[in-house]
Amino acid sequence: MISISLCMIVKNEEDVIGRCLDSVKDIVDEINIVDTGSTDSTKQVVAQYTDRIFDFKWIHHFAAARNFSFQQATKEYILWLDADDVFLEEDRQKLKALKASLTSDIDAVSMNYHLSFDHEGNADALIRRYRLVRREKQFQWIGAVHEYLEVCGMLFDSDVAVSHLPLTHDHSRNITIYRQLIETGETLSPRDTFYFANELVDHGLFEEAIYYYELFLTSKLGWIEDNIRACLKLADCYSHLNDKENNFSAILRSFEYDIPRPEACCRLGYHFMEQSRNYEAIFWYEQALVIKQKPNAPFQNKSFSTWLPHLQLCVLYDRLQQYELANAHNELAGSFIPNDPKILHNKEYFKRILTINQNDS
């Protein structure tokens, strides 16, 4: 069985760090916590789990802090988490099984990262990240913000998932770091340019975000997945600016990089739906349902290939007075989100409509 060092960087995480450590303390063999300047009781909470607590002066650079945390590890493999991450019980058992079965020739293991959940508690937005790496490979973190771990060698995609369950979020932290980098004359990498644009969107600075998305895309140096996401984010910006023409063009631009993704199809469906071009909208929502993404695709939002297109098709077929087909799509949407108020409302609506039609016939 392999041995695992947990390595984390934290700051003012007293409300969530115990929850995180409780979910993994009996699985890892060592816990290393690097504190970057907490002023709350984070260290006191952590001390209940480990005496391996290290201080690192915050220099507005996440990769530097994470690399320092990895340097504290002494076990065969390193697992990294954020303080508001948790292994839910099913994934705790999967992690235990992975630890027991993993062979030492594997250099890095990816896990799903569940970013958000639907009303039923099912993950509907997730990405894949390399979470468990062999210490002797000395993999390095790169990037001041939205840092990533550069890995190579023998890679393995596991079925373990980490759930992101934040209680709060510092909305100004990342954008402040990026602006400081720009003010000091540092040239942002293509990846940082993309993530800076994302931060600008989160702050409602849509015109500035458009500039940086274009800068990213025209560099032609981005990862294909980020290119596609940049196009769809551009579409969001134009939508907020009520620029329907450029919104439409940005969605289509994503097709330059790969086959249409369900998210792009849903956006096109909505574009035509707004214009009451019902048949065109139906076509694109149906495409969202038939396009199959790879099982381990790095970015997934399951709503765009499950309940959302079905719910929109329900509305569209209702417009066309094809009530049985509309009801069927509502039922299919309900198979994913059975307790959603929209689904329940539609059930009653179609029950009345179909009863009236049966009586009339």
TrEMBL record:
What are the Glycosyltransferase 2-like domain coordinates in residue numbering?
5-144
Q: Which residues form a coiled coil?
A: none
Pfam families attached here? Answer: Glycos_transf_2
Q: What class of enzyme is it?
A: transferase
Which CDD domains does the annotation name?
A: Beta4Glucosyltransferase (cd02511)
Q: What are its E.C. numbers?
A: 2.4.1.-, 2.4.-.-
Q: Which UniProt keywords apply?
A: Glycosyltransferase, Transferase
Which InterPro entries does this one have? Glyco_trans_2-like, Nucleotide-diphossugar_trans, TPR-like_helical_dom_sf
Taxonomy, superkingdom: Bacteria
Query: PANTHER family in the record, alphabetically?
Result: GLYCOSYLTRANSFERASE, POLY-BETA-1,6-N-ACETYL-D-GLUCOSAMINE SYNTHASE
Give the protein name, as stated in the record: Glycosyl transferase, group 2 family protein
Give the species: Lysinibacillus capsici
**Could you read off the lineage of the organism from its UniProt record?**
Bacteria, Bacillati, Bacillota, Bacilli, Bacillales
